[in-house]
Amino acid sequence: MTDKTLIVSAPGKVILHGEHAVVHGKVALAVSLNLRTYLQIGLCSNGRVQINLPNIDTCLSWESAALQFLLTTIDADVLNPKAASQEQVDKLRQFAGIPDGCVDTRSLAILCFLYLYGAISASSRQLPSMEILVWSELPTGAGLGSSAAYSVCLAAALLTANESIACPVPEENGTVRWAEDELELINKWAFQGEKLIHGNPSGVDNAVGTWGGALKYHAGKIMPLNRIPTLRILLTNTKVPRSTKTLVAGVKDKLNKFPSIIGPILNSIDAISCECERTLAAIVAGDSTEESYAVLEELIDINQHHLNVIGVGHSSLDRLCQATALHSLHSKLTGAGGGGCGITLLRPDTSPSVVEASKRALNDMGYDCWETNIGGHGVSLHSPSSLQRDVSQLLTRLTDCQ
Ligand SMILES: Nc1ncnc2c1ncn2[C@@H]1O[C@H](COP(=O)(O)OP(=O)(O)O)[C@@H](O)[C@H]1O
Ligand SMILES: C[C@@](O)(CCOP(=O)(O)O)CC(=O)O
Ligand SMILES: [Mg+2]
Predict the structure, then answer these.
(1) Which stretch is the leader sequence (predicted)?
(2) Ligand 1 centroid to residue 365 C-alpha, Å
(3) What is the pTM of this model?
């Protein structure tokens, strides 16, 4: 068991195309964001386990002895991650006082932590005393993969703390990543965490959180996208709350109810992702960029209509699309929809005045709006001095008031 304080981080993501369809085995294209979730873990000897989640105003602490039931409830092999059974989830719910069917932010975060902590500790038959602090730059529950970044950080930190994977040493002012097989293990455990939060996740979000960059995800296969141009994307948060778990379940119900109506729409979304990939490659190759951007814009419009048809749109997102269309810009929801965030594609030559006017219009509607940098690196371990000064100060302040 390592005795150091560790700081890990993982990026959020933007799904360009394929959300929801990817849950049903279709292709999705996703890129990591420069917004990250940070987790600080310190092992201690006070016989307690504490988890502090300031983004969701939650700080819980248990006597390790009270958590002993985890070792009898969860019989997991750390090298072979498996999903929590219904019986295990029921026991975790009972312990944490979470009624069945509760999908609020706090309940899902606690269930995810308890399962990963119990399952990753189960092989060593020990429940280490620790303090964990998780803080994120990502809005929670807005379609930017905060749940996956949370699960990836927890998996990486817990696996490193109990020495199931190596504890690489970052250089002064540096960050370091794990070996490929260790990243695979982190990703698999994070997927189990996502299952507790999403119900039936595709795995695309935790893959981006683990590996970063741009990737194509298809039926569990992760393929890095090497031929994509530097995309300019305006990200807008409508601030309308929603739950991925509820929206994913809604699409499944619709598909079961109308398989021959919804099935073809999911196939069409799959085709949109593939066409988008080809068009991005054409831009990199320098083929008629103007025309290619026009294709990307049309794909965004078609997909936004499809997402409305499968029931994951929202009037706040319709207003976002209309507001940007007034400036000849094209937008779609990103992530689970139902509110949350939308993306607007900017062309390389979209003028600053158009961007500013669009942002102003969206701000006036009460939305947050900013131009993003995409392509943040995957899950990483930080030396404290490598953190940006504002992040470092915030973690210190939050640690001091624990
Ligand atoms: N920083 C965080 N602290 C605690 N819990 C978090 C944090 N970020 C995400 N979560 C968990 O993830 C859930 C949000 O996941 P989800 O509905 O999939 O939205 P998204 O992944 O788009 O942000 C929250 O309800 C919470 O349980
Ligand atoms: C709707 C979905 O495709 C993406 C969900 O993303 P988010 O949780 O809204 O960031 C679900 C999934 O792929 O697991
Ligand atoms: Mg999520």
Answers:
(1) none
(2) 25
(3) 0.97
